[in-house]
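ESCALATION

Customer reports they have been waiting on this structure for their group meeting. Please prioritize. Original submission:
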Amino acid sequence: MFDVASLSNLLLYTTTRIVAKLPDDSESIGTGFFFNYKINENLFLPVIITNKHVINNAVEGEFFFHEALFEDNKKKPSKNSFSFKIKGFKNYWIEFVNDIDLCALPLEILIKQAKLQNKEIFYAPFAENLVPSNNTLEELSAIEDVKMVGYPIGLWDDTNNFPILRSGITATHPAIDFQGKPTGVIDMAAFPGSSGSPILILNQGSYTKGTNVVIGSRAYLIGILFAGPQLSIHGDIQIRDIPTSQIPFSEMNIPVHLGYYVKAGVLLENKQHIFDVLNIVKR
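Update from on-call: job pushed to the front of the queue and completed.
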């Protein structure tokens, strides 16, 4: 097995493929990623984050996980994967406030389900300190290299249970609220299945800061993909949530090579709301 301590390799374990079953028995696919909310120095609340529109109307959901193994008292990923389904799917999610297209699922629910199969989940969560502050965002450039992890048009490595890693650049300055909302734009195509995909600035070895080249590595979670502009055959530009399934439309729309993301800062802004719903008291 390759070195999972590498930042880029670790990205392969940051997401889970979500297959939602709708009332008409059709299925839709989205991306969920692992995130740790800090309760205190030694205690965290792990959750899965995705878009609200991924889980809306879903009556059942299926998750795909890597199975953990223990060597020298350390948890490592095995070559085995497993999945399970949850009924009443939408009821387990905590929706973000203020019309933010995000929701969170406490991972403990799924950890208990996995233990019923005598399995343990291996996952690599993003931490709160990967969410850049406003000051850090202002230090970034308008054009930064970005990475996205997910399952575009449902594609994945189903043998090894790995997502697809993609690259692009920022299309708006990360410090600016695009059109006055906590969103940004990347120059990367948004496809069905990519809803909920985490977007990162990830540099290994060196990166540019202003006019200087810095030797070292850095990683920031800047946002979560939720929508993309499409051009209709009539020439109208429409902003649509990224569909979670590929279905025919009576009107043809051509995706523009852009994606809209919710800024990662809203994860922290909704922390207290999530704690309140779960009756968690920060200690």
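Sent to customer with the following note: Residues 129-264 form a domain with the Thrombin, subunit H fold (CATH 2.40.10).
Escalation resolved.
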